[in-house]
Amino acid sequence: MFGRRRRAARHELDAELSLDVALDFSECVEGIRGALAGFVSYARKAGLEAAVPTAPEWNLRQLIAHQGMVHRWAVANLHGKPAETAAYEAEGRDVADPVTWLHEGGQRLIKALQGSPEDLEAKVFLNDAPAPRQFWARRQCHETTIHSVDALAASLGRVPRASETEITREIALDGIDELLNGFHTREKSRLRTESPTTFAVRPTDVDRSWLVRVSSEPAVVERDVHVHADVVLEASAEALYLALWNRTDEVTADGIELWRDVARVTWA
Fold it and tell me: Contact at 8 Å (CB) between 77 and 96?
């Protein structure tokens, strides 16, 4: 789990970096490693039968089974092999020590990523996707980070605030961009409305923004466009990251209910 000092130091570094650059491969892998450690810690504290306030359809055992399945599915894709997702998830639900099983799968994922060639040939499934090796590192960084937040919520017994997580600004900004440009511009995205509307996503702690045009067609996303929007979401990058993934209630705005109702993402 990231330490508080490391998080504060990374925020200082973030201010000095060009935030037009996405996370690189090593940063994504370290993001997976840190989120996995946090997930394991929160899970051991909460207990397997704990409810998950941020994902109320699951208890913690079911959350672990899902995350462990996704890690194993990602490894299969990296190796170009068939992925038996139902079998992976059943194994996670039935194994004697699900937390250890989760950790082992995450470590296998990290090893598989680090052992993959830079010119890896593998499928990707999001729009605006980087090359496959980077794509899988990035996707699993955010997958593990968001579900680590779910485990934190289970340990707290409530929806967490961004300040209670170990998410860095860099991860949050990259995750916002992946979610908006990668997921919500797809044909299968559920982000739709019959009455066209626009969402402005504006972090208050860095000069970045996104404009999301929502209609009955796939969303159109523009970066760093400063125009009028029907709904303006303003908060720290970390809080916006969680809010856009429907993992916190600390971001409020007139019209945000539409986002919460329709901006749901499937895992692949």
Answer: no
Q: Which domains does the chain have, with CATH numbers?
A: 4-173 (1.20.120.450), 187-262 (3.30.1050.10)
Please determine, for residue 15, whether its predicted confidence score (pLDDT) is greater than 70: no
Its sign, for the CA torsion 219, 224, 229, 234, is positive
Distance CA(51)–CA(158), nearest Å, equals 9
Distance CA 25, CA 17 (A): 16
For residues 230 and 249, what is the distance between their CA atoms, to the nearest angstrom? 20
| Residue among 210, 247, 214 at smallest CA distance from 232 | 210
pLDDT digits 0-9 by tens, 113-140: 999 999 999 999 999 999 999 999 999 9
User: pTM here?
Assistant: 0.91
pLDDT surpasses 60 at 21: no
Whole-number Cα distances in Å, 130 to 78, 124, 126, 178, 208: 15, 9, 9, 10, 20
d(CA 226, CA 10): 28
Each residue's pLDDT tens digit, 178-208: 999 999 999 999 999 999 999 999 999 999 9
Rg of the chain (C-alpha set): 18
Strands 231-235 and 210-214: unpaired
Alpha-carbon span 81 to 239, nearest angstrom: 37
- Please identify which residue in the block is written with the tokens 């359809």: 57
Do 140 and 71 contact (CB within 8 A), yes or no?
A: yes
